[in-house]
Amino acid sequence: MEQKKNGGPKRGLWKAEEDMILKKYVETHGEGNWATLSKRSGLKRGGKSCRLRWKNYLRPNIKRGEMSNQEQDLIIRMHNLLGNRWSLIAGRLPGRTDNEVKNYWNTHLNKKTCTVLGKRKSIDHKNNNTFDQNRDGDKSMSSADNSEPPLISSPETKADNDQGSMDLDDDEKRMKQVTKEVDIVDGCTDNTWMERAVHCFNYDDYELETPFMMMMNLSSSNLVFHEEPFTPCLDSFLLFDAFGTDSEVGNQSFLP
DNA sequence: AAAGTTCTCAACCGCGACGAG
DNA sequence: GCTCGTCGCGGTTGAGAACTT
């Protein structure tokens, strides 16, 4: 992988020495001007490569290692809200990069959300956990079942994903008692609206055991995400409703 | 122990947005 | 308005690790 293309910039994995050079250069001269950086620093890397390496690996306060349950929940819910807007999602996770979130989604969460129908035992090696997994992910999913794979947020799917973090039976029962349908409202797909919703969805306010429980505690409105694969409008409303007027973030007006 | 298979994630690529000249 | 350079984003790739047969 590590070769030069027609004498072009070096490619492949970064070495420790290269990391050191890049880090020192950025600490001295600051971020930005990546094309200039790649020339002046002596690194035989392209500007894009330098930028990516800094952003995803060398930048201070990068958090590495396992995603916590809270982070997982947040990613799932934010993805439900925004789709593949990785940078936006990562922006709500201190120390996590868009690339990391994207990889995590593709390798862990995306599979997990497809586990409901698949029912094949697999092992999460890093956590030493087992979970039901459709081994071939979305490929075989379509042939096994023509319907869209359900998203994480339905009560049934939720149960598969929160194993060990809460008493599912109790919460599910409570959930079913007071489920509220939220209608999709036309005309709320613009970015401003979405970003207000995201702004409202602050990682720091995320203290209760699971977002699901948080919803249960916040207001009299108890909600489930819709089964649709991507319903940003619906989820925006969910967030507003979930945070309600009693919550801290609810004191601000996010309405257009 | 070896070969084959699957998984993970760092890095690359292409594209669009944006600002400067 | 056009071109050029830079930046940031999301999708994809592939090497190496981990696991299975």
UniProtKB/TrEMBL annotation:
Localization in the cell: Nucleus
Myb-like domain location: 6-58, 59-109
Residue ranges constituting the HTH myb-type domain according to the UniProt record: 10-58, 59-113
Keywords: DNA-binding, Nucleus, Repeat
PROSITE patterns the UniProt entry points to: HTH_MYB, MYB_LIKE
A cellular-component GO term for this protein: nucleus
A single BP term in Gene Ontology: cell differentiation
GO-annotated molecular function: transcription cis-regulatory region binding
UniProt xrefs under Pfam families: Myb_DNA-binding
Domain of life: Eukaryota
SMART domains for this protein: SANT (SM00717)
CDD domains (alphabetical): SANT
Chain segments carrying region Disordered: 124-172
PANTHER family: TRANSCRIPTION FACTOR MYB51-LIKE ISOFORM X1, TRANSCRIPTION FACTOR MYB82
Protein name (Swiss-Prot/TrEMBL): Myb domain protein 82
Annotated source species: Hibiscus trionum (Flower of an hour)
The organism's taxonomic lineage, starting at the top: Eukaryota, Viridiplantae, Streptophyta, Embryophyta, Tracheophyta
